[in-house]
Design a protein that fits this description.
The strands form two sheets. Strands 1, 2, 3, 4, 5, 8 and 9 form a seven-stranded mixed β-sheet that branches. About 10% of the residues lie in helices and about 35% in strands. By secondary structure, the chain is mainly beta. The protein has helices spanning about 10-15, 40, 45; strands at about 1-10, 25, 30, 50-55, 65-75, 80, 90, 100, 115-125. It has three helices and nine strands. It starts with a strand and ends in a 14-residue tail after the last strand.
């Protein structure tokens, strides 16, 4: 079964490890409400998101999941302070998303005009630890 996982840019920048398609990673996955990502990636893509990767809180509740990375897509969008806002907090501007498939995730991306890099959409599949066959040693 293929999963789609959101990975924030800052998670990797802070203390994450780079990864590429084909890599096996051990991530703490937290269930998400896909609508939380609609302004970042659009409602259709947001509906595909199953989990987010988290290693800064909440991860101690369960063991990491072993995954094989299949694809990595950079997500870029424009941020602005909403009209009429009483704060200076910038929010994603719906409809400004730019996606780019990449061969490596390192938490950084090439600058793009008028949009900011915000994270990755990663498709991955759960993998099992390989186990050696049981010994059939009959010597005595």
């Amino acid at each position: 079964m293929t999963l789609t996982i959101w990975v924030d840019d800052w998670q990797i920048q802070c203390c994450g490890e780079n990864f590429t398609p084909g890599d096996v990673v051990f991530w703490h996955l937290l269930e998400v409400d896909p609508e939380d990502y609609a302004d970042l990636v659009g409602s259709e893509r947001a509906a595909e998101i199953d989990f987010c990767e988290e290693h800064h809180g909440g991860e101690g509740e369960h063991a990491p999941t072993r995954l094989r990375v299949l694809t990595i897509t950079e997500v870029h969008c424009r941020y602005e302070v909403p009209l009429g806002s009483t704060s200076n907090v910038r929010h994603p501007v719906p409809g400004t998303t730019e996606l780019a498939g990449v061969r490596e995730a390192d938490g950084r991306a090439a600058n793009r005009p008028h949009v900011d890099f915000t994270g990755y959409l990663v498709t991955a599949e759960r993998t099992e630890l390989s186990r050696a066959p049981a010994s059939s040693d009959t010597s005595g």
